[in-house]
Structure formats: C-alpha cells, structure tokens
Amino acid sequence: MGRYVLRRLLQMIPVFVGATLLIFLMVNVMGDPIAGLCGDRQCDPGTAARLRKEFGLDKPVWQQYLTYMGNVFTGDFGTAFNGQPVTELMGSAFPVTIRLTIVAVLFEIVIGITLGVVTGLRRGRPVDTTVLLVTLVVISVPTFVTGLLLQLLLGVEWAWIRPSVSPEAPFEELIVPGLVLASVSLAYVTRLTRTSIAENKRSDYVRTAVAKGLPRHRVVTRHLLRNSLIPVVTFIGTDIGALMGGAIVTERIFNIHGVGYQLYQGILRQNTQTVVGFVTVLVLVFLVANLLVDLLYAVLDPRIRYA
Amino acid sequence: MRGATHAKWAACVTAAALVATACGGGGDGGGAGGAVLSSSWGDPQNPLEPANTNEVQGGKVLDMVFRGLKRYDPETGAAEDMLAERIETTDQQNFTITVKDGWTFSNGEKVTAKSFVDAWNYGASLRNNQRNAYFFSYIQGYDKVHPEKGEQSADTLSGLKVTGERTFTVALAQKWSTFPDTLGYNAYVPLPRVFFDDHDAWLARPVGNGPYTVQSYTRGSQMSLRAWEEYPGPDKARNGGVDLKVYTDNNTAYTDLMAGNLDLVDDVPAAQLRNVGSDLGDRYLNTPAGIIQTLAFPYYDENWSKEGMDKVRKGLSMAIDREQITETIFQKTRTPATDWTSPVLGEDGGYKAGLCGDACEYRPDEAKKLIREGGGLPGGQVRITYNADTGSHKDWVDAVCNSVNNALGDDRACVGDPVGTFADFRKRITENKMTGPFRAGWQMDYPLIQNFLQPLYYTGGSSNDGKWSNAEFDELVDEANAEDDDTKAVAKFQQAEEVVRDGMAAIPLWYQNGSAGYSERLSNVKLNPFSVPVYDQITVG
C-alpha cells in the first residue's frame, strides 16, 4: 500500500511539470500582457520596460518557466497585476470554491445515488422512466441556462434567495449555485448508479444474501450498493477537479468570487502569474483526487489490493 | 471539531442575518447624510494609486476619496477651482498655483503645496511604475525623471518648485494655455505623507481629502466608503456612504438591482437594454459621456498611406449606416458621430455637430464611387480588427461590415477580424502589425477639445495608434496650445480638426453614452461626463 502510494506520487511529478509548462506556453502565446495594462493607450516605453522587468517578462519563456517553478517550490506564486500576491488571491478564492464544490458533491452523492438506487431497483417502472427523462433534460440543458433560470425565478420572481452570493459566501448562500453546478454530474451519477445497481441485482452474491433471509435494507446497502459504487466513486472523484475548474460559468452567474472568477480575470488580463498559479493548484487537486479514488477502491472491494 | 463547525455555522447565519437587515433597513453607520447606498463595481486592474489608475473603476474611487486643484462640473464638464485659489500665468508656460487654506486630509494632515509637488514627483518618477506618468510629461525635467530608456537621472521634476506653504510654480516644456483645465484629472490630486511613509498600509486603506473616507477595503470584493463629516469642501456627501460591490458580471448586478439587493448599477448590460424601460422606467439614465468610437487606420502600412487612400477612407465612412446600427445594435445608447470630439464638450468647448459633413452620412452610391476613384480597397477587401473578449465589439463590427458590403454590392468587401484578447489586440497595435482598419476608442481624460485631438492625431501622440502624421495639423495644435484666450484656442483646435476631417485620419463612428439604473430608494442620481455616477449628490430614502 505504502509503496503503491509512493509510486503514484512520483508519477505525479511529470504530469505536474507537463501540465504547468503547457499552461505557461499557452498564456504566453496569447500576446503581450503589458500591452493591455495601460488600457486603450500605449504604455510609455520606460514604464513598459520596467513593468516587464518586474514581472519577469523580459526573459525568454523557458527561463521564465524555470524561475517560476523555482519560486513555486518555495511557496511564491508571484504577483498579480494589481499588486496582490497570487497566494493572497488563492487564499480568498479557494475556500469559497471548495465550499461550493462540497455542496455540489454532496448533492451528487445524496440525490444522485438515492435516485440511482431507487430507479435501479425499480427498473422499467414509471419512477424509473420519469427520472430517466428528467436526467436527460438536465444533461441536455446548458448550465448557464439552468443557472440564469433558477436565479431569475428563485431570486427575483419569488425572492426566496439572494440572486448574488456575498463575498463571504457562507454555505447556505451556496446551496442553489451548488445545485446548478452539480446538475449535470448529478444526472450522470444517477444514471451510473442505476445501471450498476440493476446489473448487480441479478448477481449471485445478492441472490445468496436474499436467500440467507437478510433484511432488504441490509441487502441493498451492504451487498448491492457497496459493490455498485465503484464506477460512481470513480466518476465523483474525477468530477471534483472538474467542478473546481469548471465553476467559471456558475461563479459568474451568481457573483461568487472563487477560483473560476480569478481564472477568468486572469485570462482576460492575461496575467500569467494568476492563471498558471491557479491552474497549478487545480492540477494538484485533480491528481490527489484521483489517487484518493484509487485508494477508495480497496475500501469498497477488499479483493482489490495494492502491493 | 464538531462543536467548532457548529459555531461557525451559527456565525455565518448571524452574519447573513445582519447583512440582510442592513440591506433591508437601509443600514446604519452613516454620518450626517444618513443612509448608505450600495453600488456595483468592477475590480480595479492596477494598484489603486492616483497616478496609476487609468480605468473607470479605480477612477470612480479616486473621485470619491480625493479632490484636486480643479474639479469638472458634473453637468457641464467645465473645470472649476476646487483646492486652487489662483492659477496665474503671464506666458502660458510658467504657472504659479496657490492652494486654498483650510483643507486637510481625512487623517488631519494639512493639504499644502508640498502635498501636490510630492505627489506629482512620485507620479512622474520612472521608479514607481506609474501607468499615468505621461500626464506629467509636459512639465520641465520629465525626460530626466522618466527617460524612455535607461535609468532616471533625477528624482524630482525641475519644473516643480514649492515657493511657500500654499504656493508652488510649474514650468512647462512648451506653451500650453489650457494646462490649468487639465488639473481636475485624478493623476494630479495631492497625497498625504502616509502614502510615502507607509505605502502598503495606504494601499490597503487609501487616505485622501475628498468627501468620503475608506472605511474598509477587501480587494476584489468590496470597498465601504463613508461620508467624512469634517470634509471642508462645498460638495459634502448627501448620503451616509457608499458600499462598492465587485460583480463578476454586470448581468448579475442588474439582477441584484431587480431583486432589491443593490441600489445602483452604473453599467446596464447590453442584453437588458430592451427591458430596461419597463423594468426601471425613469430610473434608467442614458446620458452622453466623453467617449467616441472610431475606426483607425495603419498609416505605417503603405497600402493605407498611398495616394488616393483618403478617398477610400471617406468612401468607407459613407458606406456605414450609423443611424441604423446605433438603433438596432446599441438600442440608442450610442449617438451617430458627426465630428471627432464629444457632445459633452458643449459648443463653447469645441464640439461642433456636423463638422464631418457628408462624409459621415450614409450615402451608398457616393461611397462606391469614391472608393473606385481612390483606387479601390487594398487587396479588394478590408478586415476590421477588434478584440472579441470584452464588450459587444463583434456585434457592431459585423453590422458595420454588413453595411459596407451592402453599399458596395460586394459581400466580400468587408469582414471582421477578431483577436482573442485585449492584450493581444494591443500588442498588435503597439508592434505596428495592423494591416487594415481597427477598432479604436477614446475616453477623455478631461473635457477639453485638446484631449480629443492631440493624443490621437499629433505626430508621436501617446494614443496615435495609426501613426497618422500631418505637419499642418501639428502646427495648428501648437498654435492652439500657445493661445492665451480660450475661445481662440478652441477655434484653432477646430481648424486642426478640419485637417483630420479632410484627410479622414480616422472614421468617427458614434459617441457613447453612460448608462445607469437605480432603485426606488435613491434620488438625485446623475452621471458626470465621464459616465461615473455623481455619488456625493445622491440622496437615499
């Protein structure tokens, strides 16, 4: 187990370096960030040169990348164009997005798995058909439509919620945005669970458990669900990274000052330091989430072991 | 652990409850003016220093926290004395400025001549990376303090001298009669000692001498400004304060206004313009601002500078149906342009409706003829370059091209050429890589005709992106700047503008309006010529 984790951690290094290098190159080919700093007017050459030097933009890209990575290992993610250290931006943005992601994942787990189990056990019945239809609709409607619609109905028409989230972004304000963010994945989780449950329902060990006379809820939670969850856990695990990075649309709609917002601003202002910094952390989140998913397999199915 | 989480939940709920009551009840903590209002805001791009702020969002704050020597009348745009008691000159080049007595910063420090001179020297110094440094470039010694290349050889501008507690002199590098009228610009405000002594603390919570003080500032999310009760100026705040809230998207701000969570939105999103009348009625403002949009041309490209091209440019201008585009695309938040300035200048200030003449009217037949006479479009096609990341540039560029194509009877005559980001767009401009007309816009720094012409069309001007150069124009501008009489100076500038017209240096498209919407709680909401709400005049309740 320990060796397996170590090997996985070592594998992360090339992925990490590759991903950051790619982002670094992509942001750099987009143009000259200093040119956009002075608005619809040319920065005077003296100031432009100094700013370029300050942000390290006067050096070749490979050198910029090396310096950047060197700094990252000492915890220095550079400075954003407004003079704020990127770590400070992260400190304010990540907690908000993590809360949003938690809400979204909770929705996925609670609603998605419950619906999946219910429909999987009643395959072909009206409940199953209805849920299937609803999930199909949810999957096909883009997030920004769902978001704007809910915002308009709940926020403006019925005034149940505030249409925008305050800067502190406490959990209760994130419920609706979290639901919007989770909606598409939630539908997938439902469908995945349903298929998996329906399949395993016919397996020998479930039949044995039923034959032993175990109570129904025990058969379902202990025997059926535990084995059916493996594909679902894989999906949710990889989804965590996707949710954090993909929150741009939801965060914009609901005025959430999280990772999506900072990334958007960073890209718009072509702020290499902000974009690369945030993406670096997101890559790490993605990698760690994947590792955790793999480790969870062993918990769910003891037959899977890591040497 | 569990206990801690519970406590945190409780705290969050209480905080939310407090916020909710503060919103519903109008809030407390206000000064003499009473209630606090909330307004939408965008995250300032640069550190919030006077000489470093070149966009509207940061400028908005400076306008609330600072007062300079002059201030532009919110309605007429005329430069009026604020902290300046007298600005005297005999030769239009050397000025003696006397600062009024009795002004202090909100921390109690007196505003003296030194407060100005120190601030200006700071703004000009290359070492401080101030993006607006060129505002001081007219002052003697700028080339030493801010050389184009290499290290600076002086720390202070030789043209600035403190001559008394309340007096200082300014020596300009050339004659410039309207220089005093530019002193209302944010880059010229005075700064307190604490700005220099403890810069980080100042940035975290700016201290100024204006009608508002900064109560708290959370970067990227909110700034709370409160009325300063001891403010010595005549334009005391008529409300208790303003909470500026950063919005990720102006659509969300508008939704919040509709839901009653926000009092003022100073940028109505284009998508809402169709509903704004029924949503807000007369609580929607749509008033002229000092912004003009044009199409500029790359004169460094010989295709565009060769003989006869002025006819082609004029023809293109005639092929654009400005009326229709401003109505359908912009819902009348733009006005077709008929000169190269802005209506906010007023007739005395140099705005002259119709100066452009026929060339700015939609005349498809004549357009076709002129372009043919001028030798046709270079390569048979014009590509209008714009940045696609902000604003609705794609919409109007497509509309302009449509109009041109219809007029010329050739659907390949004009196409839009989008560039991904603003930074990339600017990069192509600064590196002289444009090959055809490109989007250009000018938001005035101060309401002077000089500001609409000199930076844009003077040889080597700071925003002369197309590198247009005309000796006659330069000469007329120099003469205008040396004129001691304002009316005569304006007349000279208009003469220079006629040179711009005759060569069709840039195609004027339309004047941009400022727009705002506000809640029923507010009254006396106005936008100044810079399209920024006049916060101090707003009353709540």
UniProtKB/TrEMBL annotation, chain A:
<protein>
    <submittedName>
        <fullName>Binding-protein-dependent transport systems inner membrane component</fullName>
    </submittedName>
</protein>
<feature type="transmembrane region" description="Helical">
    <location>
        <begin position="232"/>
        <end position="254"/>
    </location>
</feature>
<feature type="transmembrane region" description="Helical">
    <location>
        <begin position="12"/>
        <end position="31"/>
    </location>
</feature>
<keyword id="KW-1003">Cell membrane</keyword>
<keyword id="KW-0472">Membrane</keyword>
<dbReference type="InterPro" id="IPR000515">
    <property type="entry name" value="MetI-like"/>
</dbReference>
<dbReference type="InterPro" id="IPR035906">
    <property type="entry name" value="MetI-like_sf"/>
</dbReference>
<feature type="transmembrane region" description="Helical">
    <location>
        <begin position="174"/>
        <end position="193"/>
    </location>
</feature>
<keyword id="KW-0812">Transmembrane</keyword>
<feature type="transmembrane region" description="Helical">
    <location>
        <begin position="274"/>
        <end position="300"/>
    </location>
</feature>
<feature type="transmembrane region" description="Helical">
    <location>
        <begin position="130"/>
        <end position="154"/>
    </location>
</feature>
<comment type="similarity">
    <text>Belongs to the binding-protein-dependent transport system permease family.</text>
</comment>
<keyword id="KW-0813">Transport</keyword>
<dbReference type="GO" id="GO:0005886">
    <property type="term" value="C:plasma membrane"/>
</dbReference>
<feature type="transmembrane region" description="Helical">
    <location>
        <begin position="96"/>
        <end position="118"/>
    </location>
</feature>
<dbReference type="Pfam" id="PF19300">
    <property type="entry name" value="BPD_transp_1_N"/>
</dbReference>
<dbReference type="GO" id="GO:0055085">
    <property type="term" value="P:transmembrane transport"/>
</dbReference>
<keyword id="KW-1133">Transmembrane helix</keyword>
<dbReference type="InterPro" id="IPR045621">
    <property type="entry name" value="BPD_transp_1_N"/>
</dbReference>
<dbReference type="Pfam" id="PF00528">
    <property type="entry name" value="BPD_transp_1"/>
</dbReference>
<feature type="domain" description="ABC transmembrane type-1">
    <location>
        <begin position="94"/>
        <end position="297"/>
    </location>
</feature>
TrEMBL record, chain B:
<feature type="domain" description="Solute-binding protein family 5">
    <location>
        <begin position="82"/>
        <end position="463"/>
    </location>
</feature>
<dbReference type="GO" id="GO:0043190">
    <property type="term" value="C:ATP-binding cassette (ABC) transporter complex"/>
</dbReference>
<dbReference type="GO" id="GO:1904680">
    <property type="term" value="F:peptide transmembrane transporter activity"/>
</dbReference>
<dbReference type="Pfam" id="PF00496">
    <property type="entry name" value="SBP_bac_5"/>
</dbReference>
<keyword id="KW-0732">Signal</keyword>
<dbReference type="GO" id="GO:0015833">
    <property type="term" value="P:peptide transport"/>
</dbReference>
<protein>
    <submittedName>
        <fullName>Peptide ABC transporter</fullName>
    </submittedName>
</protein>
<feature type="signal peptide">
    <location>
        <begin position="1"/>
        <end position="22"/>
    </location>
</feature>
<dbReference type="InterPro" id="IPR030678">
    <property type="entry name" value="Peptide/Ni-bd"/>
</dbReference>
<dbReference type="InterPro" id="IPR039424">
    <property type="entry name" value="SBP_5"/>
</dbReference>
<dbReference type="InterPro" id="IPR000914">
    <property type="entry name" value="SBP_5_dom"/>
</dbReference>
<dbReference type="GO" id="GO:0042597">
    <property type="term" value="C:periplasmic space"/>
</dbReference>
